[in-house]
Every structure is written in structure tokens, then in C-alpha cells.
Specification:
It is a single chain. Helices cover 39% and strands 18% of the residues. The chain is of the alpha+beta class. The strands form 2 sheets. Strands 1, 2, 3, 5, 6, 8, 9 and 10 form an 8-stranded mixed β-sheet that branches. It has a two-stranded antiparallel sheet with strand order 4-7.
Amino acid sequence: MTPRTEVEPRSKGLLTPSRVAPAATAPPVAIARRAADGRSALFVRHYWLPRWQLADGATVRQDVLEYPTANFVVEERSAALYRAGRGRGSRTLEGSGWALGVLLRPGVSRAWAGASMRSVPPVLPLDRLTVREGAAGMVASVRDRMADDDDSGAIAAFEAWLDRLPEPDDDARLVDRIVAAVEEDRELLRVEQLADRFGLGVRHLQRLVAGHIGFGPKWLIQRYRLQEAAAALRSSEPPALADLAAELGYADQAHFSRDFTSVVGSTPGAYAAAEGRG
């Protein structure tokens, strides 16, 4: 398989990177990513800050295979928590705009939503979150900074608000470790393996993971499989599909192709042709 260093891990969720320019280049669409530091890293995996400036009538569609966690997103007219979706997500950009996106750690969003993530809607506006105290001022500060092209200032405003919140509890941190294990250890291919790794019963693991990210551990394993597959297929030297399927733990290429097509929306071969760098 393509070495991990070839596709930056923090960007594997974006299925269509060919439609997005690096942040240092000119628009129409650019995205910056910033790591979370210090105490904020208990809550945040990373920040993503897109900006776009499109010609009249022009649109750009971004397709995403989301990480198994929620995003908190501030835009010019909205601020909300977005939970991960079961399949591919898409958004069509038009006109001009920006966003401060906060990719939360997997264990965080349940406490912010105040309920199991299995039962919450795909989008929770800020005024429905349990952490809304002081949030209106934070959002106003973020919008002011983003309007001035001050990404660092926007992140600082968000982190000043984040410092008021209690740290994630033990279950949240356990979920973070479970999700990290699936991401980092490609030998974890079955729910039973994951349960054994953490000394949990399968049902306990299922309830814990689904309550915090909205879907169970089987979905979690598949999500990282398919993110890894998409990253490999858009590399400069994509692997043979049979080899890729075997490395990701599929019984055969046909099973892999069915899963990939049902979630991503195109066959592995078609995706590699459209997004590959070869």
C-alpha cells in the first residue's frame, strides 16, 4: 500500500482534494489546517479553515468521507455541531465565504449534545448544545477575526471559550483511545479484536462507541478502511485493487469494491482515474 507519509493523515477525509487549493495559493477554494495545542487538544483533533471566492454562477462540490467524530462549525450566518454521517457527505460551494471548522475528538460531542449521538439529528444549532454559555460572544469574535482574514485570532477566540469547559470524562477519553487504535493499527479488522484490545465485552463496546460517535465499532472499522483505500487510490502509484483489498482485510476484491462503491459513490477504478495523481 502507499506509505502513510504520501497522503497527509489529517486530510484523508476529503475525497476530492483536486478541487481544493493549498491555503498558500490563490482562490477560488483554499483550505488551511491547524493543529490543536495544549489543553485544547483534549477536545480538538484539528482546525480546518476553508475560504472560497467563486465567479458568478460557478460552483464547486466537495465530497467528504468524514472522520468518525463531530465537527463544530462557525460560518457567517450559522454555528452548529455536525455529527458524522453514515456515508459520503457533500457540500456545494458558491459565491464567497469562509468557515472555522473544529474537528472534535471522538469522545467530546456526546457531552456537548447532552444525549447519545445515536439519537441526535445530523445538525445541532449552537442554542441546542449544553455548552452554549458564553458561546455567543465566542462566535461573534470568531466572525470578526475571520472577516479580517485572521485565522490565528479566530482559533484563539474559540480556545479562550474552550478553556471554560470541563475536561472530557473517562468514557470520552476511552472512546478517543478506541478510535485512535482503529486508525493506527491496520490489523484491527474485527469488532471482537477491538473489544479484546480494551478488555470490554462486545455489547459494552458497541454501546460506548455508538453513544459517542453515532455509529458502532463495525462502522468505525469500515470507515477507516475506506478512508485508507481512497487515500491509496489517489496517490501517485495506486496499488492493485486485489492487493489493496487484501491489505484492508477484505475476503476478496469484489467485497471491497462493493463497500467502496456503496459509500463513496463510484467504483475504486473510477475514483482512482478521477482523483489519482499518477
